[in-house]
């Protein structure tokens, strides 16, 4: 091994700082969620909002994230300037949280979450960045650590609520209390985050759209043989094309009319000047549709139960803001441990095995909720035990499903359009987080219907994963085998 030069050492340090900045971004997004969610319902009650308004406010954030995600992802793919995307998105987060702090009416509160949701769309660009600077083997550990940072934020967030609930002072015309303080607190943190991104974040040294050879080179191990189409979808030529392997290697632009991906014959993606004109074509394959469906079902069920937890705990257990904060604190600990376990298991388990295990736990969780939470009965201690077990099982399956489907998605879609691809994936999740709270908020008195629908969706995705199990593999790994 050649000794590293000072330039190599400096580059490595800059990459580490960039990863730290990305981790802090995910951490801050988790803190925002955990700080605002436990008190938003009581904030709305203080503004004379009806119960259904809680679903609107929770869905508003996801609506604008759904719309902005693909746009931010496409922008970062075309320019390679992920840093600019993050800086702009943070401005929306700052404005949205300041509006939440002002909170002059329930409609202004709704608008604040709409504005902040635009900033959350930059997550697509960040996931695309992580995909382009990692190999397939590094994908699960890297995504697991990124998501673990967000869960660490969920863990830290309720701790901030412990002292924010005691805030009561005046800033000019604005009164700061336990409901508006989270907005001011997050606004300050996002302003500080701007300076972190400016001084620590570093874009990829080369634009992957302009230099495909240089883009693929760091994504391969030293003993790997680069495939001429690795940067696209790891396709191999159909044998019926009268072109031997040597001619394909000598001419990287040569391709068959019907490339094969994961044993699927799919139309070739049109290319011009090294860019993909129709990235949506690659998102219509069976295995990709299964992963997008898993994304939708997971987020729909998660947000539906999160919407249900606060009113249910208040009605049957008498939980208030402090108890809700402690509940989310414990859930954050469990989720953080779960992501670390996924990171460890990824060394010996494939992505699809982790996905199946997560779906199994989610099915058990939904069955438990149907049996015990749809119509709670018994003493306070019995109700508390039913509630805690249901929440524990729900949180336990999330890390496995989340990391596995994101990792597989990044491996089964085009390398050059990862920002746009993850934007579409997050938009599907955003649609789920819009419908989930609305569905749950409208059926708090009909829990059998609400939980039954969730169970049906879980059974649907479980059957889809079983039928498409053989296709849920890394194309590059299957080629080597």
TrEMBL record:
<dbReference type="GO" id="GO:0022857">
    <property type="term" value="F:transmembrane transporter activity"/>
</dbReference>
<feature type="transmembrane region" description="Helical">
    <location>
        <begin position="325"/>
        <end position="346"/>
    </location>
</feature>
<feature type="transmembrane region" description="Helical">
    <location>
        <begin position="353"/>
        <end position="374"/>
    </location>
</feature>
<keyword id="KW-0812">Transmembrane</keyword>
<keyword id="KW-0472">Membrane</keyword>
<feature type="transmembrane region" description="Helical">
    <location>
        <begin position="380"/>
        <end position="403"/>
    </location>
</feature>
<feature type="transmembrane region" description="Helical">
    <location>
        <begin position="447"/>
        <end position="469"/>
    </location>
</feature>
<feature type="transmembrane region" description="Helical">
    <location>
        <begin position="424"/>
        <end position="441"/>
    </location>
</feature>
<feature type="domain" description="Major facilitator superfamily (MFS) profile">
    <location>
        <begin position="18"/>
        <end position="470"/>
    </location>
</feature>
<feature type="transmembrane region" description="Helical">
    <location>
        <begin position="50"/>
        <end position="73"/>
    </location>
</feature>
<feature type="transmembrane region" description="Helical">
    <location>
        <begin position="110"/>
        <end position="130"/>
    </location>
</feature>
<dbReference type="InterPro" id="IPR051068">
    <property type="entry name" value="MFS_Domain-Containing_Protein"/>
</dbReference>
<keyword id="KW-1133">Transmembrane helix</keyword>
<feature type="transmembrane region" description="Helical">
    <location>
        <begin position="288"/>
        <end position="305"/>
    </location>
</feature>
<feature type="transmembrane region" description="Helical">
    <location>
        <begin position="142"/>
        <end position="163"/>
    </location>
</feature>
<feature type="transmembrane region" description="Helical">
    <location>
        <begin position="183"/>
        <end position="201"/>
    </location>
</feature>
<feature type="transmembrane region" description="Helical">
    <location>
        <begin position="20"/>
        <end position="44"/>
    </location>
</feature>
<dbReference type="InterPro" id="IPR011701">
    <property type="entry name" value="MFS"/>
</dbReference>
<dbReference type="Pfam" id="PF07690">
    <property type="entry name" value="MFS_1"/>
</dbReference>
<dbReference type="GO" id="GO:0016020">
    <property type="term" value="C:membrane"/>
</dbReference>
<protein>
    <recommendedName>
        <fullName>Major facilitator superfamily (MFS) profile domain-containing protein</fullName>
    </recommendedName>
</protein>
<dbReference type="InterPro" id="IPR020846">
    <property type="entry name" value="MFS_dom"/>
</dbReference>
<dbReference type="InterPro" id="IPR036259">
    <property type="entry name" value="MFS_trans_sf"/>
</dbReference>
<feature type="transmembrane region" description="Helical">
    <location>
        <begin position="85"/>
        <end position="104"/>
    </location>
</feature>
């Amino acid at each position: 091994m050649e000794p590293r030069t000072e330039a190599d050492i400096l580059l490595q340090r800059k990459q580490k700082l960039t990863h730290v900045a990305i981790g802090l971004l995910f951490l801050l997004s988790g803190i925002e969620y955990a700080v605002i969610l436990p008190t938003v319902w009581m904030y709305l009650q203080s503004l004379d909002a009806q119960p259904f308004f809680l679903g609107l406010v929770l869905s508003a954030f996801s609506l604008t994230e759904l719309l902005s995600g693909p746009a931010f992802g496409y922008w970062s793919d075309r320019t390679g300037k992920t840093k600019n995307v993050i800086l702009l998105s943070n401005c929306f987060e700052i404005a949205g949280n300041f509006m939440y702090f002002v909170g002059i009416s329930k409609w202004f509160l709704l608008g604040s979450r709409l504005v902040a949701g635009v900033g959350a769309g930059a997550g697509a660009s960040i996931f695309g960045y992580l995909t382009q600077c990692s190999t397939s083997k590094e994908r699960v550990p890297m995504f697991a650590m990124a998501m673990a940072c967000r869960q660490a934020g969920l863990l830290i967030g309720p701790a901030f609520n412990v002292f924010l609930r005691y805030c009561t002072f005046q800033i000019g015309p604005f009164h700061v209390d336990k409901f508006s303080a989270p907005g001011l607190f997050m606004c300050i943190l996002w302003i500080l985050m701007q300076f972190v991104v400016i001084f620590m974040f570093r874009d990829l040294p080369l634009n992957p759209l302009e230099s495909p050879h240089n883009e693929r080179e760091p994504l391969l191990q030293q003993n790997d043989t680069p495939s001429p189409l690795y940067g696209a979808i790891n396709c191999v030529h159909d044998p019926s094309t009268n072109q031997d392997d040597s001619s394909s290697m000598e001419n990287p632009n040569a391709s068959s009319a019907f490339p094969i991906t994961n044993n699927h014959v799919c139309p070739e993606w049109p290319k011009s000047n090294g860019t993909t004109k129709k990235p949506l074509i690659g998102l219509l394959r069976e295995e990709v549709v299964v992963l997008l469906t898993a994304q939708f079902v997971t987020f729909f069920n998660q947000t539906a139960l999160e919407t249900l937890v606060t009113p249910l705990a208040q009605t049957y257990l008498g939980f208030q803001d402090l108890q809700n904060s402690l509940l989310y604190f414990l859930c954050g600990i469990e989720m953080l441990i779960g992501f670390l376990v996924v990171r460890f298991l990824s060394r010996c388990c494939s992505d699809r095995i982790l996905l199946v295990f997560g779906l199994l736990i989610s099915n058990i969780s939904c069955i438990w909720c149907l049996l015990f939470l749809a119509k709670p009965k018994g003493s306070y201690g019995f109700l508390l035990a039913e509630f805690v077990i249901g929440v524990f099982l729900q949180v336990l399956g999330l890390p496995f499903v989340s990391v596995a489907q994101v990792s597989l998605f990044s491996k089964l879609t085009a390398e050059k359009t990862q920002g746009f691809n993850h934007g579409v994936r997050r938009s599907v999740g955003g649609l789920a987080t819009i419908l989930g709270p609305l569905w749950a908020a409208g059926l708090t008195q009909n829990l059998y219907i609400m939980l039954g629908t969730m169970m049906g969706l879980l059974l649907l995705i479980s059957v889809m994963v079983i039928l498409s199990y053989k296709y849920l593999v890394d194309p590059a790994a299957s080629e080597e085998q």
